[in-house]
Amino acid sequence: MAGQEGGLGRSRAADARTPTWAQELLDHLRPTGRDVRRIVAWLAETLHGTASLQDHTGTLVAGTRLPLDEGLVADILAGRIASAASADEDGHLRLVRIEQPNQASAGVLAVARPAPFDRRASDILTHTVQVLELLLRAREATAAVRRLKRATSDLRLAILQLLMVEDTVSARRVAAGLWPGLLDTETACVYVLEGDAAERDRLVEECLGVTGDHALVVRCPALDEHVIIVATADAAGEALRSLVDRNPGTLLGGSSPQSLARTATAYGQAVSALAVARVRPDKAAVYAERHHPERLMDPAALREWTARLLRPLDTLPHHTRAELLATTRLGLEFTAVSAAKVLGVSRNTVRARMERVESLLRTDFTDLTVRATVHLALSTQVSLADGQGEHGGTPQARTRLGDLLAGPALGTWAQELLGRLDGDARDLRRTLRSWIAAGGNAERAAQTLAVHAQTVREHVRSAEPVLERRLIASGSDLYEVVLAHLATGELEHPVLLRDNPGHPDAPVHG
């Protein structure tokens, strides 16, 4: 008896150490084990048979395909019967309906085994069906959440793209459905958060958490490491700064407050502020409202010159004109590829629109002085649309670019700005001037200077922190420096047909 009791105790101890089929099945519900294919494989192994799971279209989801009666499968999928069983000389077969959240997408689990389905086998099959239904519901719920997040993300991007082309009315209509009141404001700030591209989804969620319903948070379509935030609440800036503090390696650049119609301008400011944030201890910076050249020009003369330069576009339908102006403004601020991604169009579309503007203005955007001049006109045009810069005296008749650049205030600003480069023994000022004259092409500038192209690039990069402006990347910072060279006479004024009263294509003096 003693020996028998000892043997029974050892057997029970062994059973306690060996997982039962129920425990094994429950293990498949652990976060690391939730795999439908693994469960179906486990079921086949446990029942010493073959198992298959197919969806409502007949596609094999998991397991090994079995020859099944199509009519029987159709009855189960239609809900006319919940299960079926059959037996022949080859073995025994069970078919069970797998319920899905969407009743139209039910599945069928089939198990074939040589031995009959006893109570144990039936229990295993029944509980496995329950686990599969649970996992499939969870997977569908997860997929639904993922689809909703993707749709919401796409909607945010669409709103941003509408703001970028100054269609604030449509942007407000789209936003009102999901975020009532988000764009019920006249002004907003744009922030750009830069971080590891692999961490962007997490950073987006954090941005949404700290800004709530007071900001439009968008994954930048042009740069994978950027998150764009259009914030309408003053507290958003501080909240985003706290996010930078919690995430080492991130940078934050912010714009000054701008009207919603100037979202593209604010975006450019935020990207420019990132360059300053890189050297700041707190890794955050807001665009400084420094002396911009257009603010040092005679406002009335600037308005008259801008209206005349852009007059060829006035013959276009309003929508076409606005589309061309917005695309050109972004195309001058960024590369055609980046502008295309931000606007949600192809780069060929961006280039085609800019070429049309070139044709209408009868000018050439490959010339940096032309780009800077047209950018000045487009920025002024946006300011006029905002109601800014409407005060001033009576404009002179037919103001030319030279008249705008001849003011003493602008000359003082230009000399001070470029004079910062004089302290460098490498003659950065000469290199920068040659590089601009070569259209920003380091190879052509190097030929003019009889140096290596890499030397030109290094000099231009060295000038950036001295001037506190981005130069390598095209944009408003570079165009300010170009205008400074034009104001000091270090570069020739660009040929603008409508700016030259002596040209046969220019309008007659009125």
Please mark out the parts with pLDDT under 50 across 5 or more consecutive residues, or reply none. Answer: 1-18, 386-395, 500-510
What does the radius of gyration come to?
Answer: 34 Å
Strands, count: 11
Number of helical runs?
20
Tell me the fraction of residues in β-strands, as a range: 5-15%
Give the end-to-end Cα distance, rounded to a whole number of Å.
126 Å
Cα shape: elongated
Structural class comes to: alpha+beta
On the 0-100 scale, what is the average pLDDT? 84
Sheet with the most strands?
6 strands, mixed
Helical content band: 40-55%
List the helices and strands and how they pair.
Layout: H1 2-17, H2 21-27, H3 36-46, E1 50-54, E2 60-63, H4 70-78, E3 83-88, E4 91-98, E5 107-113, H5 119-164, H6 168-178, E6 187-194, H7 200-211, E7 215-219, E8 226-231, H8 235-246, E9 251-254, E10 258-259, H9 263-277, E11 284-286, H10 299-309, H11 318-333, H12 336-343, H13 347-361, H14 368-385, H15 401-405, H16 408-419, H17 428-437, H18 442-449, H19 453-467, H20 476-488
Parallel strand pairs: 9-11
Antiparallel strand pairs: 1-2, 1-5, 3-4, 4-5, 6-8, 6-9, 6-10, 7-8
Task: Explain what this protein looks like in three dimensions.
The chain is an alpha+beta fold. 53% of the residues lie in helices and 11% in strands. It contains 20 helices and 11 strands. The protein has helices at 2-17, 21-27, 36-46, 70-78, 119-164, 168-178, 200-211, 235-246, 263-277, 299-309, 318-333, 336-343, 347-361, 368-385, 401-405, 408-419, 428-437, 442-449, 453-467, 476-488, and strands at residues 50-54, 60-63, 83-88, 91-98, 107-113, 187-194, 215-219, 226-231, 251-254, 258-259, 284-286. Strands 6, 7, 8, 9, 10 and 11 form a 6-stranded mixed sheet that branches. Strands 2-1-5-4-3 form a 5-stranded antiparallel sheet. Strand 1 (50-54) and strand 2 form a beta hairpin. Helix 5 (119-164) packs antiparallel against helix 6 and helix 17 (428-437) crosses helix 19 (453-467). The N and C termini lie far apart (126 Å). 38% of the residues are buried. Mean pLDDT is 84; it is low at 1-18, 386-395 and 500-510. Residues 338-378, 428-471 form the PucR C-terminal helix-turn-helix domain. This is Helix-turn-helix domain-containing protein.
